[in-house]
Protein: Metalloendopeptidase
Organism: Meloidogyne enterolobii
Amino acid sequence: MVNFLKILKFGIAAHELGHTLGFFHAQARFDRDQFINVVYANLSPQLATQFVKQSPADNFNFGVTYDYGSIMHYSDTDMSTNRVTMLAKDKSFQHTMGNNVAPSFLDVLEMNLYYKCSEHCNANGADCKNGGYRHPRNCSTCICPDGFGGFDCTRRATPVFGAPPNCGATIKANNSDFQILNGEVSSSVENGMAPRHAQCWWHIRAPMGKRIQIRVKSVSGACSDGCFYGGTEIKARDFLRVGARICCRSDVRPLGILYSNTELAIISVFSQYKKQHFLLNIKLLIH
């Protein structure tokens, strides 16, 4: 059995290592007011310094966008006595805040940019798509955003960390009124906490020039800050940062309806706690 505290400590260690390597808290970025509202009335006074905003001169982010799912981002109730201290301006990301498992794709990308890790890759390396970039230790391969895979990030990511090989699919959205999508995954550890999330992805593809409307009808599974135990993630507009995450029944209604920017939307289900299951009923409507 994997010890819960060991897993939690990895996330904490990754967060603190981020500080050592030069990262500020995500909610202290100079541009954070474009993405969150800080609820100062709910902050513990002695901890309010954790929300001091950095200056652009001190906080250069190499053009990497704000990531609610960064390992450097506090949860929405941190620094209080279980009251909300941050409100996502895009409410669909309210429960994405508080990732305490591992660095996000954008965390690793920004670290590679900061330390110029990929500069030794020459023009003959991999031609990475969908925001992927050449692996600094093997320039012929790509590091892909979550949800993408293959040698050049053009394929759907394969299931990972114990998720069954047939988990996930590529689905063509059609012109019918609605399509129902159900998805579930279980932790790779039967009784206890797995070291990583079992995870799989669905790519929803619409006809060229069309968009996708997504409404989550229900979720089931353990409810936790930052969806630590597992949950459902929807990427409808930006495939690089962590998507909108939900893992509590109370999350469903506030999430509302999501619309893709393009002909693609990505859904994933992930779990690292016991036999945790998620049942997703998602309606797709083509505009």
About this structure: The CA atoms of residues 70 and 104 lie 5 Å apart. The first helix runs from residue 4 to 20.
